[in-house]
Amino acid sequence: MLVPVVIYACLGAVAGILAGLLGVGGGIVIVPMLSVTFAMQNLPHELIMHLALGTSMASIIFTSFSSAMAHNGRQSVLWNLVKIITPSIILGTFFGSFIASKIPTRYLQLFFALFLLVVAFQMFFGKNPKANRQLPDSLGISLFGAVIGIISSLVGIGGGTVSVPFMVFHNVELRKAIGTSSAIGIPIAVAGAAGYLINGLSNPDLPEYSLGYIYLPALFGLVLFSSLTSPVGAKLTHSLPVHRIKKYFAFLLLVVSIKMFLETI
């Protein structure tokens, strides 16, 4: 049991830094690593992906909150945008978690691998937005919020990999987009974790120490260390070349995506 605990702690530390630095919530790293660790522990194979997604969403509640507070201290959160998009994000995420609970692990893995591939190419080849493009009205933002919520629940992320490009594309300065994304990750994670908890409670094959599709030992390790490191990531956002770092991160996502494709096939 010691090795998984150490892995959970390391994952939490990395997730926290990524949440603060790139506004991605860390889920795109947490989910594949949790699935590997759960397999090492011989947890039920048909539940591995659901447990990874649910645990990731629950951990992002704490990661996003810590990161959002750090960014707020640097005045990098657009709270008006957060207020507009939150209701539709909650509905979309909660609904998406019900969909995910009905999908077999194999297809969830394939969808996640495809999502990573898209995100990797977007991060690596992303272009700067046109200077005259502005955010849509409240209805447009709300509709996009529902889409972010559904996607986030299916891949166990805080929505940053979707919301940050959306905001940057609409002429929001990158650091404010990252800070706002961290705040948006809070309602996404709360709604997603609630959905996975509710949908998993009735499953008779859940492993010991699970609360629905949330595996509590992993959650504890992730939360403890991610909360400590997310302010560090937020601070680094204001001193490191974020665009260059995103390209390195994109390459990592590409490798993880290919590995998951091969394992699933």
From TrEMBL:
Domain of life, per lineage: Bacteria
Database matches in Pfam families: TauE
InterPro entries reported for this sequence: TM_pro_TauE-like
Protein family membership: Belongs to the 4-toluene sulfonate uptake permease (TSUP) (TC 2.A.102) family.
Keyword Transmembrane: yes
Keyword DNA-binding (UniProt): no
Membrane-crossing segments per the record: 6-35, 47-65, 77-100, 107-125, 145-169, 181-201, 213-233, 245-262
Subcellular location: Cell membrane; Membrane
Protein name (Swiss-Prot/TrEMBL): Probable membrane transporter protein
Major subcellular location class: membrane
Bilayer topology: Multi-pass membrane protein
PANTHER family: MEMBRANE TRANSPORTER PROTEIN HI_0806-RELATED (PTHR43483:SF3)
Keywords for the protein's UniProt record, in alphabetical order: Cell membrane, Membrane, Transmembrane, Transmembrane helix
